[in-house]
Design goal:
Blueprint lengths: L5 H30 L5 H13 L1 H39 L15 H14 L4 H12 L1
Helix pairs in contact: 1-2, 1-3, 2-3, 4-5
Length: 139
């Protein structure tokens, strides 16, 4: 290690980091080319050939020419993913997204169980009626 000074190690690490960042950008550009719906097949093939034949120049040209639309596609995809996640959460929680209302009854399971418990505590329901109503709600 005596014949490899610390400054050379620093420069090696810097170049390695830049190479990794360029590879990340290259794959990002290739993914964006295939994800882009506004490009036809010939345009996608052209960009792909340019990026693969002249990698550094091709990536630079792509980022300059289509960087703004690239960020718009990323934002649109993030919104779609978020909407899909929220729909999944609503489905898993059993609500349909209308102010937390569940199905045609107009209330969530928790609210129904709370009302049943209140009715039982007030003496309006017997234990048997409470258990029957509770089992209908939870099914």
């Amino acid at each position: 290690m005596d014949d490899y000074p610390l400054l050379n190690l620093f420069w090696t690490m810097l170049w390695f980091f830049l190479w990794i960042m360029w590879l990340f950008l290259l794959f990002r550009v290739i993914m964006d080319v295939f994800r882009s719906h506004d490009l036809g097949g010939l345009a996608k093939a052209g960009w792909l050939i340019l990026v693969l034949v002249l990698p550094y120049l091709g990536v630079l040209i792509y980022v300059v020419a289509r960087g703004k639309s690239m960020s718009k596609r990323d934002a649109r995809e993030a919104k779609e993913r978020e909407a899909a996640f929220k729909a999944y959460v609503r489905e898993a929680a059993g609500t349909d997204g209308r102010d937390g209302q569940d199905g045609p009854r107009g209330g969530s399971h928790v609210e129904d169980l709370s009302r049943l418990s209140d009715l039982k505590d007030k003496g309006a329901l017997t234990e048997e009626e409470y258990q029957r109503a509770k089992s209908r709600i939870l099914v």
